[in-house]
What we know:
The chain is mainly α. It has 24 helices and 2 strands. The radius of gyration is 31 Å and the shape is flat.
Amino acid sequence: MLSMMVLVSSMILEEKEKKLFAIIKITSQGQYPTMLAKCFVMIIMVGVITTMMMVGQLVYSSVIYGLGDLSRSVQSLSQYSQCPFSLSVQQFIGLFILMKCLAASFIGLIMLLIAILSKNKLFAIIISLVIIIIEYLLYLFIPSLNSLYLFKYFNLISVLQTDSFFQVYRNVSCFKNLISLQMLILIGLLSLFIIFIIIDTFVYHYKRNMNIELVELPQFKNFQSQSLSLIKQESYKIFFIQKVFLLCILCILIQCYQYQHISIYMDNDEKIYQQYMKRLEGPLTNEKEQWILQEQKHYQDLNQQLATISKKREQGSLTQTQANAMQEQINEQLRGEQVFQRVFEQYEDIQNNPQKQFVYPVAYQKYFIDINWLFMPTLLLCIFTIIGLSQVITYEYQNQMHKITQTSYRGNHYILNIKLSLSIGIGILFLIIVLTPPFVLLQQTYGFSSLLAPAMSIQNFLLFPSWVSIGMICMMSLILKVYVVFIIIIGIFAIGIKVRNHLLTLFMSICLFLLPLLFAYGGYHFIDFISLYPLLFHGQFVSNIEGLLQILFSFIGYGILAVVSLKYIYTHYKSIH
């Protein structure tokens, strides 16, 4: 979706902003041929992007799992046993990719039409998002057996969910003839595909005003006053002209949706262990020690009773039925013994290391160490930071305004400092947005207690001295993440000043900061030494000396890179004469 929005923006909206259509449309091939060429290029680019995504997944799956015999029937795969087409797996893969490309290209054609008709860039984005949301809601809430089922299946989201799309077996009466639902939708999608190419071409031809108009909202109208401070002007430019506020809203919605549908399952053993820890948390006292020893004696007595019952059964003083009934009652009381053993092991560890305390560690282990909890927030942080801020420094270059601003008294390093400060603030805002929902969910389920306890009380933090508390570890973790945000923003600025192009800055920033993290998450750690992985996922490195050294080297290495980049930024942020 994002790639299609970028393509449409560069093909229509950017040319509208620069008022190029007033020139293009009066040339000999500036009418139908131009729009047909744009449609063709958009379809090719979307097809290439979609195919690369699908083929990449296929290659990865083939390496990990293997593909087997591609000539076998697709119905031999249990998930597609009801697929209505008689195809081999190889042919099905081709049809699968074709449907993805067709649906994605059709969305691109809709976005092209919206861009042609829209008089404002923001409205074009909002209308595109509204259409996608409406389609998603129809797909989500219409039941499969409802009379409106065609709105559920003849739907862009349904076709993009291609794996589920081909698992449905359903026939539709069309002119008193039965036709499979997939064939009907494929024919309809192809027809609409051709129709929208024609519509886009004719609308472009007959559309007279092809310029972008600025929408003046009354509450923001005073931002255009010349007496306004540069900080407010830059804030308005970044948040509203460059649409960073939309990314903030989108990031919040994604996080809310994601964590609204996550439920944490706790089995009975975990609940019992949590209750034990709530009772015992803190330093070991005589009262706690006596209670633990009493619990241990209680379980020892129960085990002794089991042994006595077995002995009596062997001697014949108890029948098998009596023995089973008595053993069942005792086993009921012994269910918490394994959980208590975890508590007792922690008690023995505290006896050997009196500086430790009882701590319930699950929330800290999940929030700081478990990569399944860390990866999605980290991925969103990098994506939204890069997308939102890659245009901050390149915006003036692409509009040639740097030749004016950088030669003015307060338009050179002063305005650069404002841009950097605002960008860092936005990066920290994204950080807060992505970290808050998982923190709240884990707090509600497990609780972040014992923040003043020594960090060495948790198994993963044994290397830290006793004066380092769990709260200090949490603070250091937050500082490292803020440091990473600072590094990414400095890198984006340096790249932007070097290449002076938005899309190239976006592409290079993704390659530099995001791809190494994806490789590491996929199990390929060969470039960890030059990636942000040790700093962002530092919880996995703190349990041994080598990991701590790797964090230290990454911290120092990226610190040096940040200093060099800052020097480059302040040296080269000037107009070309």
